[in-house]
Prior knowledge:
single chain, alpha+beta, nine-stranded antiparallel sheet
Amino acid sequence: MKRSSGIRLRVTVAVGALSLALITGCSDGGSDKAESNTGSSTGDSAQDSSKNTAKALTVAELKKLAIAKGDAVGYEVGSVGKTYPATKSAVTVDKAQCRPVAWAMAGQAPGDAAAATNKMVTEAKKPSSAASKSVEDMTEKEFDDAFGAALDRTTTVVGLSSYDGDGAEKAFKAVSDGVKSCAGGFTVTSGGDSQKYTGVVAEKASNTGDESVAFGASAVMEDSGGETGTAHTEVVRHGNTLVTYYTVNLGALMSGKAYVVPSVVIDAQAAKLK
């Protein structure tokens, strides 16, 4: 049974989905200083005035608090590496109010942070339920199931950033405001390539930390006949530290299956910040 054309088609769709996941990747791989803009707080500005004089954590302190190997059962934790551009300056967002949203989607500090770091958290490979057959011997459905299953793993970029004074509250508000004002979408350019997000929709947040906001950003996947795929992000404020969770699942994008930011990952990171 000839499968070369089918394989090429599915690989093309997968690469298209992959571009959706990575085009906004402006992670600094754990840089000491995050470059971004700020907003004003959505939290209760009258509560705990000591926050206004809070000192940011250092990079070393953030790294100790970042999710690590063994913290989330069923997930592998590693470095973001060189997958993304080294700095925010390498990424252009067409709407200023959408920059914090785009940066949060890449594990970057969404505000003017004093220090930042990040990690890549990948769901452990799932055991395949497909029969042990060669590609040539598979039916079309068996091939589709096996191909989708191989890619059906969530990958989450977890970013931690710390701020002086009320910087974290301002940065959080910039993201929260951005989710509303960028509902019509925005365009990100990195390394000469552009990705247009067609819409941003608020989603249910985990309600961990002092305040949290979650959203999905949709884009048309390459060579998919106009089908859209949605990446999911959540931003949580823990005192003067923000945590961003950007999650994508290529298998789910290809099949249209719903997926979310893994609660296991959020809970594991939140536990280290208590």
